[in-house]
């Protein structure tokens, strides 16, 4: 018993080197130590700082941490009512998705917590407002949204992000209250992101003078209405996705700071006419439309399934975009014969992906000839979709060669993803190797998608390949050994990527 008593009374080393006892830890006091420096240090609650510094510290916390701090600290309680970063999403509130019943409960909880947070906010000091509303309008009505926005959108707000997840296709679409941005309340906004709503701006919205980024997704807006935002001369980035009411998009020269334009799946769009003098990057996904982009463009990405964008680029870009430096094309449909009326004199990077199953890859040689400054060539092939003769079927046939005079003096890096045994692909690869005297890196990847592979350390298993794809990959390895290796100069860093033998073994 005495030994147990002694152990309980034994001094315990506390934080910061302080010595305390079990009795003191339970709340008892010791008169001889009441005024000791160590006890004062234990009772000290923190430095006496100006209120604005406490507010700044509070603003640096994440939403959940800031709310918790306000519950236990008087210093943070007052600043919670003017907390500046209201990012209210499932993630920031710690709500995780799941099956339908669980998701149903989460959506209602998200609406309830959103209402509670904004009811307790003074509306002053908000810099960022991001609302992610799930299953609208089942749990949140237009009146709710109007009330929440009117609380937070005040002069000084810099970012407004409203993301609505409609409960069904027939759900009522929210009409964004454009007058909310008038009277100086929109003057400070730098970034505006709206999703799944109706947005009808008027000429009065010229007050958005600080707007640098506009992102509209599944938003009902016409070209004329979008034109009212052309007075936002600070605009640098414009993204339009699934805006079905857009028929014509005209960008005036007034937008001198516009650098990046993204248009994705605006299926009724007919014309894109940009006069922005400093537009640098353009990404277009959808069916072919009439484009006029100006000669300042340097980076052009285009993707679509119903049009031959490769031929469109070859026939139109040399004259339309004479200063183009990077070209990225995804096209499901391609004709074999390329007609190139001019040269892309400044093009340094060319990336092409997706082809018709029987496409003659050797025809891409004429495109390479039209790019005298080309340094990087990246090609994506879908080997499981290729329908053409393998070079291994008749190895006695000679490879096709172009007449002398083809020289790619600037090509340094060539990457082919999904390299297979198709004869035309092997012929094109050999042609590049033989004529690119400045080649430094050559990568032949027999796997069409290396993003989901265990070798990168992020996944336990590689993405599953079909048996036919694994067999084709091993055919490609045989082709590399027979036709490619001997042609590659010793100065070239040559890399061949093959299927993972653990996740996708070849079974005979």
Describe this structure in words.
With 508 residues, this protein is of the alpha/beta class. The protein has helices at residues 2-9, 22-25, 37-43, 51-59, 63-72, 74-80, 100-119, 142-152, 223-227, 309-320, 365-369, 423-435, 467-484; strands at 12-13, 19-20, 85-88, 128-136, 159-166, 174-175, 191-198, 213-220, 237-241, 248-251, 260-264, 271-274, 281-285, 290-292, 299-304, 326-331, 349-353, 376-380, 413-417, 441-445, 493-497. The strands form three sheets. The protein has a 16-stranded parallel sheet that branches. It has a three-stranded parallel sheet with strand order 10-12-14. A two-stranded antiparallel sheet has the order 1-2.
Relevant terms:
508 residues, alpha/beta, 16-stranded parallel beta sheet, 3-stranded parallel beta sheet, 21 strands, disordered N terminus
Quick synopsis:
This protein has 508 residues and is of the alpha/beta class. It has helices at residues 2-9, 22-25, 37-43, 51-59, 63-72, 74-80, 100-119, 142-152, 223-227, 309-320, 365-369, 423-435, 467-484; strands at residues 12-13, 19-20, 85-88, 128-136, 159-166, 174-175, 191-198, 213-220, 237-241, 248-251, 260-264, 271-274, 281-285, 290-292, 299-304, 326-331, 349-353, 376-380, 413-417, 441-445, 493-497. It has 13 helices and 21 strands.
């Amino acid at each position: 018993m005495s030994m147990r008593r002694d152990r309980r009374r034994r001094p315990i080393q506390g934080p910061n080197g302080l010595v305390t006892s079990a009795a003191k830890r339970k709340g008892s006091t010791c008169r001889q130590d009441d005024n000791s420096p160590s006890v004062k240090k234990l009772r000290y609650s923190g430095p006496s700082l100006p209120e604005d510094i406490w507010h700044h510290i509070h603003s640096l916390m994440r939403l959940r941490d800031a709310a918790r701090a306000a519950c236990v600290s008087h210093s943070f309680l007052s600043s919670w009512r003017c907390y500046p970063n209201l990012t209210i999403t499932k993630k920031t509130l710690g709500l995780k998705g799941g099956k339908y019943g669980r998701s149903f409960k989460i959506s209602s909880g998200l609406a309830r917590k959103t209402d509670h947070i904004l009811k307790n906010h003074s509306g002053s000091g908000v810099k960022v407002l991001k609302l992610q509303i799930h299953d609208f309008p089942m749990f949140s009505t237009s009146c709710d949204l109007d009330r929440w926005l009117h609380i937070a959108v005040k002069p000084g707000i810099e970012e407004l992000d409203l993301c609505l997840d409609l409960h069904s296709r027939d759900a009522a679409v929210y009409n964004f209250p454009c007058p909310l941005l008038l009277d100086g309340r929109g003057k400070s906004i730098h970034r505006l992101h709206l999703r799944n709503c109706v947005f009808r701006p008027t000429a009065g919205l010229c007050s958005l003078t600080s707007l640098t980024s506009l992102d509209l997704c599944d938003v009902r807006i016409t070209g004329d209405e979008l034109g009212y935002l052309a007075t936002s001369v600070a605009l640098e980035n414009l993204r339009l996705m699934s805006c079905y009411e857009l028929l014509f998009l005209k960008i005036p020269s007034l937008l001198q700071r516009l650098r990046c334009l993204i248009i994705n799946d605006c299926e009724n769009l007919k014309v894109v006419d940009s006069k922005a003098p400093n537009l640098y990057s353009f990404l277009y996904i959808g069916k072919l439309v009439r484009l006029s982009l100006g000669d300042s463009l340097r980076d052009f990405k285009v993707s679509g399934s119903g049009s031959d964008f490769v031929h469109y680029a070859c026939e139109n870009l040399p004259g339309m975009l004479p200063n183009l430096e990077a070209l990225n094309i995804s096209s499901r449909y391609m004709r074999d014969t390329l007609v190139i009326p001019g040269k892309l004199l400044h093009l340094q990077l060319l990336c092409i992906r997706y082809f018709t199953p029987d496409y003659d890859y050797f025809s891409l040689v004429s495109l390479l000839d039209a790019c005298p400054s080309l340094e990087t060539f990246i090609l994506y092939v879908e080997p499981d979709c290729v329908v053409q003769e393998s070079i291994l079927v008749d190895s006695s046939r000679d490879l096709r060669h172009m007449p002398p005079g083809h020289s790619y003096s600037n090509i340094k890096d060539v990457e082919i993803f999904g390299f297979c045994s198709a004869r035309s692909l092997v012929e094109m690869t050999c042609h590049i190797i033989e004529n690119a005297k400045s080649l430094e890196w050559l990568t032949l990847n027999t796997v069409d998608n290396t993003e989901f592979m265990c070798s990168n350390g992020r996944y336990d298993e590689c993405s599953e390949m079909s048996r036919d794809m694994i067999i084709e990959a091993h055919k490609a390895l045989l082709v590399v050994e027979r036709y490619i290796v001997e042609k590659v100069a010793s100065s070239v860093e040559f890399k061949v990527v093959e299927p993972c033998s653990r996740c996708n073994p070849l079974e005979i």
